[in-house]
What we know:
Elements: H1 2-32, H2 36-49, H3 57-70, H4 74-88, H5 100-108, H6 120-136, H7 140-179, H8 191-194, H9 212-224, H10 229-245, H11 250-261, E1 271-278, E2 283-292, E3 300-309, E4 319-321, E5 329-330, E6 332-336, H12 337-374, H13 376-389, E7 403-410, E8 416-420, E9 426-431, E10 438-444, E11 453-458
Parallel strand pairs: 1-10
Antiparallel strand pairs: 1-7, 2-3, 4-5, 4-8, 6-7, 8-9, 10-11
Helix pairs in contact: 1-2, 1-13, 2-3, 3-4, 3-6, 4-6, 6-7, 7-9, 7-12, 9-10, 10-11, 12-13
Amino acid sequence: MKTSMLVLAAMTLAGCQSAYRNHAKEVANSFKNGDYQTASATAKEGAAKRADDETERVIYNLEAARTAQAAGDYYGSITHYDAVHEDLRPYLDTEAQYTVSEAVATTAVNQAMRTYRGTPGERIMASSMNSLNHLAVSDRDSARLELNRAWDWQQDAIKRYQKEIEAAQKKLEKEAEDEGVAGSTSRDIPDFMKSYYSGLENMSGYADYRNPFASHLRGVYMLTNAVDDGDRDRARFDLRQAIQDNPTCAPALRDDLQLLEGSQRHLVPPITWVYFMTGRSPYYEELEIRVPIPSSQVPTAAAAFPMLKTHDDHLRYMEVDIQDGNGPIKTVQLVDMDSVVANEFNTRLPLIISQEIMSAAAKAAATYGMSEGMGDWGTLIGTVYQQATAEADLRCWQSMPKEIQVARVLTPQGGQIQLSGPGGRNLGTASVTPGESNIVVVTLPSAMAPNPSTMSLQLTGKPIKPQLKAPEQAETPAS
Length: 479
């Protein structure tokens, strides 16, 4: 009876994982095709269904937040990003990332049983993206708060992320010893697995979990909304750090640094920064193989691992033209999100592999025990249980961009900025407030998407347009 319930539970859990994968695929397909409204509606529905599921709701809310933002529902996006922060906030400096109960669950079932709390890169991006929402609804104080949160997450990652992975590895080694499968864990990628993950070492990311986009966004906010010289010093620090992390972006940042380092740094002319969020960030596919385990009775076992895959379907750049007679300006790369995601995945990979091999070994040992005690019926139950629970954790924030690029222009007097892609492809016109500093955010998830999603955000002066009303008062118009 107990073993039958175990198999039933395993099948139920497998069904939950299948539901997530189908949902993520549906959202990703709509988003990729530029159907922002459908992607948002699907993601919002999924997040509502998972509102009470502590294991899954962070990843559902991340997708709902980003797709709502692309659909022009800024208040809805804020709601989902805030829900993410409420779930993650207890882990900022205070709580361990890996609990004993989760370790037991991941060994007995699979790593998708772990509560999803986001990676450092996802946490930093969530706060940075939410700051854009607050600027869109003219709440600059809340935008500053979100930028500070992004900084806090980066500092938290420096202090704790690697240490917690090492602590989890030690805990896993102790558990493996207690389970009698001590040879199943390793602090390096096993030789028989290396061919599956070749190339990751070439995607190195940025030092200390930094994100040049987060640095740049905070820098231009502090530049245009400085209340004292401390803010201006912070702006200079952030812009310098962005260039240090990614020298490619220097042409778009030098003029702002010169402003901050000159005697007239209190006098900032009306500037518009254009962010081009092109493509989609990496995703995971499942690798199912049989792996060697430290057991004389069962030398191999079925196991499943996540494999990182990147999207190549994106526009390589965008051109920004304020029609001043000087021609268009091409965007330059600010952050390579592929490298950010790959670097963090590579850091976790030895632990992921060790957990899965240990889990496979423990399940194989249990199957052997049931076979010895129950004969063919025990073998059948154990085999079904192994197959039902051999699933990799494929959860990740798929609607993040592949790259974020930037261009800097003086705000045009006519308030119109022409946007175009390679080959002169028309990407539309962005409207900005003349005489003020602005941010324009252009999202194009794939080259095949017919039109981008465009946000125009005012950084300085009294907004000409009134604040958008919250969803309970009126529908928020799409940009």
